[in-house]
Amino acid sequence: MSTPVDLVFDGAVATVSLNSPPLNIFDVEMRDELISALGAVNDVPDIAAMVLRSHGKHFSAGADLSEFGSAASIFEGRRIRWDRDPWSILADLRVPTIAAIHGTALGSGLEMALLCDIRLASPNTVLGLPETKLGMLPAAGGTQSLMKAIGPRDATPIIARSMSMGADEALSRSLIHRIEPDVDQAAAELAAKLASLDPLVLSAARRCLRAAQDLPLESGLAVEKKLAEVVGSRR
User: Would you call 10 helix, strand, or coil by DSSP?
Assistant: First the structure.
């Protein structure tokens, strides 16, 4: 019997696959499975990189909006959603992450990809955050991760106007990093390359880059100096 999320370990690379085709909607069961899978990736010390991908025609069309209708109120529906939160786990994962996107990546599907370090997409990909058109806000980190990825000039119209775009436009806006004809193969190869690097150096580099996004320059430079000393002390 299939489960909504597959987890495969291959050497130092973990592959987490959404497995509820065709749309790979994020319902309660899928979120619970993602929490378990991402926790397992974090807990296996030999894992050095992770790929997030999906089975079927689409990466993910986003959240299961029917859950809001079955809750006592929209606020209760949001609370249930936030209580089952795989997004913060993905954002804080200790290893570099690669999203392999194809087909449709909308709403929380795109938000999951935005929380990955590197985003690869197939030529047929359509990406967007339609929440404001539905009278909602992106609630899986989209307002924060999109702005950090592409800056306020491009992020504002995407969210405010519920824009969607193809892979070429997404690449031109730096929403994705590369377009790949075989996105799953490209992601697997890139993950293997990352996993072959010195894990301490790679971890330190990721921490420095995140400090550059989140901290004032002086504080970010202090983080860089401290981590450079840690890495250099092994020589």
Answer: strand
